[in-house]
Amino acid sequence: MPLTDETVVAVVGAGAMGVGIAQVAAQAGHEVHLVDAAEGAAAAAREKLAATLTRLVDKGKLTSDESAGILERVIIGPAADGDLRELPPVGLVIEAVVEKLAVKHEIFGTLDDEQDESTVLATNTSSLDIGAIAADLAHPERVIGLHFFNPPPLMKLVEVVRTTQSAPEILRDAQALMESWGKTPVLCTSTPGFIVNRVARPFYGESQRLLEAEVADAATLDFALRELGGFRMGPFELTDLIGQDVNFAVGNSVWHQTDRDPRYEPVAVQRELVEAGRLGRKTGHGYFEYAEGGQPVGVTPDEGRARELVGGPIETDPVARTIAMLVNEGVDLVRRGEATAEDVDTAMKLGTNYPKGPHEWLAEIGAATIVEQLRALDAAFPGGRYRVSPALEEQV
Ligand SMILES: NC(=O)c1ccc[n+]([C@@H]2O[C@H](COP(=O)([O-])OP(=O)(O)OC[C@H]3O[C@@H](n4cnc5c(N)ncnc54)[C@H](O)[C@@H]3O)[C@@H](O)[C@H]2O)c1
């Protein structure tokens, strides 16, 4: 059964992501069954959604009729408290439960047994191998990733992820459906970190290494990336916002899943912050200290130092070093056949708000310069982190 505007959807897991995804689907006109294993959690999430919709009506973003229609389409049915055998037949399930392979695998096993073989089974996992979630199912061809970004109603990007077994027509349908939900889908394989969480690693790692080498402090490096590099936020203020534990876990997961590729090796400064419980804004301190209301205190960048570093030698230029590595990651992903260049650029601009995509930077800066910069970094810091992607070497 192809995915259409009429497709009935189930969202399993009514946490931060699940409730947002349910809102998006219901807003696009779908009937949505909301499910969560914690008793009463799905119903409570629907109440939370009602409050969100009321706020949107107050702000004039929705009419009260639209709001009522959305809420009416979010159904707390017999499966709401987690028993998926009670779920009526649906055309699409989007799973957004805790990030644990065993839990997801069991859910997909039940859905594979209980739902018609044409029902598309999607996971919102950020870091698990979707092939492993689909392993041993009778119909693994209907399993895909639909990786939404937080918060789903506001973030346009959805990574549509294929395993080696996903059916091409299901992937095509899923992309069309995401477009009809007002999203911008990009297609990629189930490679560690998919596109965004993979290509973004050096944005954090390069500055962390510069901090560790005492080239500049966190505020100065943030200033360089933000004010001189054109990024929306610096890596330290951004990871303080995301949570150092969350950002560290993503990096660590990519590192482990790539057999500890030195490109993704976590940096001690961040590990130490996590171990010390300095997780960022949510704990009141991370790289920076935060006042009660969440505003950072005492952040004073050394602007002169930042301007001296940017445009200087590549080893200590936070902007050029970061961009060279983002380009290297982006082209390497394309070389391995994980995604197209266009999708990589779209994903990075929409998923992380980067001012440009890696291939746009490449076109602007030129492969010869990027290769020269990476070779200089490799000479200064040997060990494989700065190895040049063959995709760049071929261009010089
Ligand atoms: N938070 C993010 O920024 C983000 C972004 C993209 C993807 N994701 C992914 O989305 C998924 C959910 O993340 P979240 O942040 O919404 O988590 P969350 O902790 O807010 O919610 C998870 C929910 O799943 C429920 N749950 C646990 N086991 C269940 C089961 N067996 N059946 C049904 N419900 C079950 C929990 O009760 C909880 O309500 C994870 O796979 C995560 O990696 C998260």
TrEMBL record:
InterPro entries registered for this protein in UniProt: 3-OHacyl-CoA_DH_CS (IPR006180), 3-OHacyl-CoA_DH_NAD-bd (IPR006176), 3HC_DH_C (IPR006108), 6-PGluconate_DH-like_C_sf (IPR008927), 6PGD_dom2 (IPR013328), NAD(P)-bd_dom_sf (IPR036291)
Signal sequence annotation: none
3-hydroxyacyl-CoA dehydrogenase C-terminal domain residues: 193-290, 319-394
Record-stated family: Belongs to the 3-hydroxyacyl-CoA dehydrogenase family.
Pathway(s) per entry: Lipid metabolism; butanoate metabolism
Keywords for the protein's UniProt record, in alphabetical order: Oxidoreductase
Protein's UniProt name: 3-hydroxyacyl-CoA dehydrogenase NAD-binding domain-containing protein
Keyword set includes Oxidoreductase: yes
Domain 3-hydroxyacyl-CoA dehydrogenase NAD binding span(s) in chain numbering: 9-189
